[in-house]
Amino acid sequence: MARLWFYGSRVQNKFKCAGVTIVHMKTLLDIIKTNINQSPLAAYTDYPFRKIIRKYGCRGLLFTEMISGRGYQMNPDFHNRFIKFEDIDRPVGVQLFGSDPEALALTAKDIENKFKPDLIDINMGCPARKVTGKSGGAALLKHPNLAEKIIVSILKKMKTPLSIKTRIGWSINDCKSKDLIKIAEENGLLCVFLHLRSKKALFSGALELENFKTLKSFFKIPIIANGGVYSKEDYDRIVHEIRPEGFLIGRGSTGNPWIFNINKPDYKEPTREERISVMLEHFNLMIEEYGETSGILKFRKFLKPYLKGIPDHVKFLPQLIQFKTRQEIIETIQKHFQATKLLD
Ligand SMILES: Cc1cc2nc3c(=O)[nH]c(=O)nc-3n(C[C@H](O)[C@H](O)[C@H](O)COP(=O)(O)O)c2cc1C
After folding, report:
1. Pocket-testing residue among 39, 168, 238, ligand 1, by greatest number of atoms within 8 A of Cβ
2. Which of 33, 103, 159, 205 would staple 69 via disulfide (CB 3.0–4.6 Å)?
């Protein structure tokens, strides 16, 4: 029998749960449906990234980077640092991956107890061989029975709303997600997050929009679409065509926290000054979080997306990447942008 979440009645304006005050104006599902949400990106969607996108745009759900169910059972302390968040960051979903139903259920329970996230999600879409090789991630598209065992064992152990994030199929046009969506619906999960590309298409290639529309017509469970949005034009075109119940943005949000506002009538592109100022704020948060050496290294991947469209960025970027101290980097950015009259 379908299991129903009474989450809507729990998440009112404000409620207390084991001493934690959770503030929400709407139900979690309403929040997911009415806002653009952040898609999990391993090695990107860490604590500083989530702080920046919450501050500059995202009113929807934020995700942590994915956590291995088995790995967590072996070394919870190592993994707990990836889950860190404050009440002000809510709603936050923690994503797990793996194929061992018991380990995933125990991990979901431990994380529920320790962090009280707003959602637990199971990754059923990651195409990386180190994940699919152990029957996790997208491999679950081919093993719906195992996927169901995972879902059932987690539901037995915890009360937090549960979702899955998967891909539309294994190969182009096979729509293998149909089996997983059916299982999610029958077990009363909150929603399904669906990357509109197959596992074989990886991260590029056409989105399967027609297939999405057909799939959507079979189910009542909300299917939140994802993939290929880098601009307001992309979003308007895709959403107009497929009318999903909600949307997640992944790569388009790196260096562009404002992208989460593209569905608002008063949306304005950020100015170059805003881009540089938020880039520096993000950079400083990374150093606060990881220390100078590691923070600089981890921040490098954000430089290109933040600097996109800035004069000379193609020449300027390789210069910046050579520096090893915060001061050198900040001074170089300031000098460059005074020279190009972007900063005071
Ligand atoms: C670097 C990188 C890391 C990713 N990490 C995750 C992850 O941890 N969990 C997940 O479900 N999807 C992950 N994805 C997939 C994205 O969440 C998203 O589904 C995909 O990139 C398509 O959306 P986009 O075109 O908006 O980026 C990752 C994608 C990339 C490129």
Report:
1. 39
2. 103
